[in-house]
Write a structure and sequence with these properties.
By secondary structure, this protein is α/β, with parallel strands linked by helices. The chain is built from ten helices and twelve strands.
Length: 320
Amino acid sequence: MKREIFLGIDTSNYTTSIAAINKYGHRLFDIRIPLEVKKGKRGLRQQEAVFQHIKNLGEIAGKIESFYGNISAVASSVSPRNVEGSYMPVFEVSKNTGMLIASICGADFVETSHQRGHVRAALYSNNLISSQFIGIHISGGTTEFIEYEWNRYFIKEKIVGQTLDISLGQVIDRIGVEMDFLFPAGSMMEKYLDKIESTGFEKEFKYKANYNSRGINLSGLETYLSELYKNTGNKALVIYTAFENASRLLAEASRDICHKQSIPDVLFCGGVASNKYIQNSLRNKLVEYGINTYFCAPNDCTDNAFGVALIAKDHFEERI
């Protein structure tokens, strides 16, 4: 039997993901199980997340049994980012599960990073982007600007900008939990703002996020939003202020980095990139700077193994 199936596994801080694709990149299945975070909590300890991942993978193991004899390559996220020293215990689950499945199937095993999986998933729905671009990963874990060169597989990957303290996703989630939204809070905050008449908020808006050529500082923004909520109790105003800060910050940083690197294309991915308010605001701002803006498909902005499965396929095609 000809082996034409590629498997991806990703066990991030908050989602157990496994996906299989065929030789055309079409999904055979794409399973994502969010980890449970108790109300009022701002996250999970690593040991708690590892336990949930093991439990979740055990429950979905039967999903891939019928594919074993036809799997050509298995890719796993083994680290958060593709840099030396990047490590989290949760990724040991995807790494060891992937190695085991590959060994049983006689398939190739490919190591990749969680961040690369996000970027690869975004590339799938943006095939018109140039081979050189700035990938902007905005999530609960990182806010990074990375120069990529890509042609069927990653050729170059260099960090050209990043936060110096916490990420945009952390700012949004932390203030969201403070306002009694469930973690992760971004999507619920967006829905809440959609229901509220926000006209006039721009008159009360004060830009707070701190960006300069050395990097991005966001802890001050978190403090500012927390104080704004304590002083006003106005959830919609706080959410608007958070999202507008995010879009202005990302636009300013993208402008400076793209001009410095002489690269006109930016690709946004990661959970925060699915936010429609931030997307629309960024498009409006970046078009004025002459920057071509691309976003990951909304469904693939969240943590997933689809991009990881595509990397398994890329590995196979590069090898042959």
